[in-house]
Write a structure and sequence with these properties.
single chain
């Protein structure tokens, strides 16, 4: 039976994963917890591989490492350091910049950045659990004011659409954000389709791109936005997201914006289950 690591205590984490062997054993247990299936031929019987924790398929002879076809595939540095980065990025409330991560685990900033990119990819939403109840949708801009580019004009600014769930008790549930290139109806509908259940009570402001949302969302409601006095939950969420990007990362490029949105919401959506977030 695998000894699942729980909690967010860095000292306990270091004790639990004290060397590469401990990490490899843990990874093997997690990878094959539902049973072994050969990656190449799907055969389900195996024997010991050439190295500890490897499994050799009895069907085709493929020798598979616990790291193969995982986040740690072809890792170029110690597995203990990679585990530490995963722990810091997932369990630390505000995460860490790659410069900080590099200094803490003893790798180059470039190495930390490349691995964190892979980690952010693993943090993407599965899009299998759409939001229900009441859901608010809005767009926001990230970037400084630019001369000649007022309001919704883009320039160098980045935009994203955000959906956030309001539970019956008034508390905020899950949220998702998508980097978008325009404010067109089709673009905003695509975000809703990925993350919002058709039966949800979808609430938007009166921006024209939401006018035809009633077709897909019968409970769609359009409400006039009153200078931030309503839609409090979604506006607070946007402010926290922007503060995190500016405070920890200072800025993000257009090509990697979505990765940071995914990272932020991976932690946000698991804020009530932090004890198991690393696992």
């Amino acid at each position: 039976m695998i000894d699942i690591f729980k909690g967010v205590n860095a000292i306990e984490f270091g004790k639990h994963f004290k060397d590469n062997e401990t990490c490899m054993s843990y990874l093997a247990s997690r990878k094959w917890q539902a049973g072994y299936s050969c990656f190449k031929c799907n055969h389900t019987e195996y024997c010991k591989g050439n190295l500890p924790y490897f499994r050799r398929c009895k069907g085709c002879g493929y020798d598979e490492s616990p790291t193969a076809n995982t986040l740690f595939h072809k890792l170029k540095f110690d597995l203990t350091k990679a585990f530490h980065i995963v722990f810091r990025v997932s369990a630390k409330k505000k995460s860490m910049s790659t410069t900080e991560l590099a200094k803490e685990v003893g790798v180059t900033q470039k190495t930390a950045w490349i691995f964190k990119r892979k980690l952010q990819e693993a943090m993407k939403s599965s899009e299998q659990f759409p939001l229900t109840n009441e859901v608010h949708i809005d767009e926001f801009v990230l970037g400084q004011k630019e001369e000649g580019k007022p309001g919704r004009s883009l320039g160098e600014k980045k935009i994203a659409a955000l959906v956030i769930e309001i539970k019956p008790n008034g508390k905020v549930g899950r949220a998702y954000a998508k980097h978008i290139n325009n404010y067109k109806t089709a673009t905003l509908k695509d975000v809703a389709k990925k993350h919002v259940d058709k039966g949800a009570q979808l609430v938007s402001d009166k921006y024209k791109s939401y006018d035809s949302f009633d077709e897909e969302y019968p409970k769609h409601e359009s409400v006039k936005s009153i200078a931030g006095k309503n839609f409090t939950e979604i506006h607070n969420h946007i402010m926290n997201l922007k503060a995190w990007i500016r405070g920890i990362h200072h800025s993000v490029s257009d090509s990697h914006f979505q990765n940071y949105l995914d990272e932020f919401h991976y932690r946000f959506n698991r804020r009530n289950s932090m004890s198991s977030i690393f696992n």
